[in-house]
Amino acid sequence: MEVLQTLAVALSLGTLAGVNLYLTVLVTGAALHFDWLRLPSSLAGLEILAHPTIIGIAASFYVIEFCADKIPWVDTVWDVVHTIVRPIGAAALAVAALGDAHPAFEVVGALLAGGMAFSSHVAKAGTRLATNASPEPMTNIALSLAEDGLVLGGLGLLAWSPLVTLVLAVVLCTTIVIFLPRLLRNILQSFYALLKRIRSTFG
Questions:
Q1: How many CB atoms lie within 10 A of CB 82?
Q2: Residue 4 near residue 167, CB atoms below 8 Å
Q3: Per-residue pLDDT, 84
Q4: Which of 55, 110, 139, 184 is the most exposed, having the fewest neighbouring CB atoms within 10 Å of its CB?
Q5: CA distance 60 to 200
Q6: What is the Cα–Cα distance from 114 to 13, expressed in whole angstroms?
Q7: pLDDT-derived band of residue 16, with 50, 70 and 90 as boundaries?
Q8: Percent of the chain scoring above 70 in pLDDT
């Protein structure tokens, strides 16, 4: 059961990191730093997130993302850059959560967490790109706040029950994978709409 809970934390953190890596690290690190959350020995590797330097860096990047996420097309550029950053960050969180586990188990956990982060990232980026095809600043602001609320709620649920959070994360990522072809088509359509807009703007 302890192994399953450890894996649940690793994969759930990975899924949330795919939506907002910096907020996930910041809130987790702050909760550990100020003793709002006590970790079992199996998750001792996550204590590194409580280091003031990591909290400071995560907070700085979160502030940048908080602003960028609310500006049409700037949020899409930010998401493109983080197509690599978020899955890698999720994999790193998984390795930290798994701690002294067998190296093979760490690799599997990192791959799964990275994959789940990529799934949630694609869903976020695709939604933003589709929204930006008909830009309306208030929509971007509402989506950004909803995403942050999702991460905060997910972290709260994770602290209460890692297994329940894992089940919801698996359901979410499975749903994303099922609808991924349609999502990719919408992304391509939105991208072509962007190209047309750029061409019309610059003649």
A1: 22
A2: no
A3: 93
A4: 184
A5: 37
A6: 10
A7: very high
A8: 88
- Report d(CA 6, CA 142) in Å as an integer: 33
Residue 166 identity (one-letter amino acid): L
pLDDT in tens, 109-152: 999 999 999 999 988 988 887 777 665 666 788 889 999 999 99
Domain with 160, as residue range(s), is 2-201
Q: What is the pTM of this model?
A: 0.88
> Are 148 and 88 a contacting pair, CB within 8 Å?
no
CA 183 – CA 188 distance, rounded (Å): 9
Structure tokens at 14: 């990975």
Are 90 and 21 a contacting pair, CB within 8 Å? yes
Give the helix/strand (H/E) hosting 121. helix 103-132
Residue 23 has pLDDT above 90, yes or no: yes
Residues 140-150: b if buried by 16+ CB within 10 A, e if exposed: beebbeebbeb
Tell me the residue type at 138. Answer: M
Band (pLDDT 50/70/90 cuts) for residue 17 is very high
Tokens of 37: 């959350």
Total number of domains constituting the chain: 1
Nearest CA to 167 out of 4, 1, 3 is that of 4
Q: How far is CA 151 from CA 34, 133, 202, 203, in A?
A: 19, 25, 39, 41
Which amino acid is present at 195? L
What is the three-class DSSP state of 26?
A: helix
* Cβ contacts of 171 within 8 Å, gap of 6 or more: none
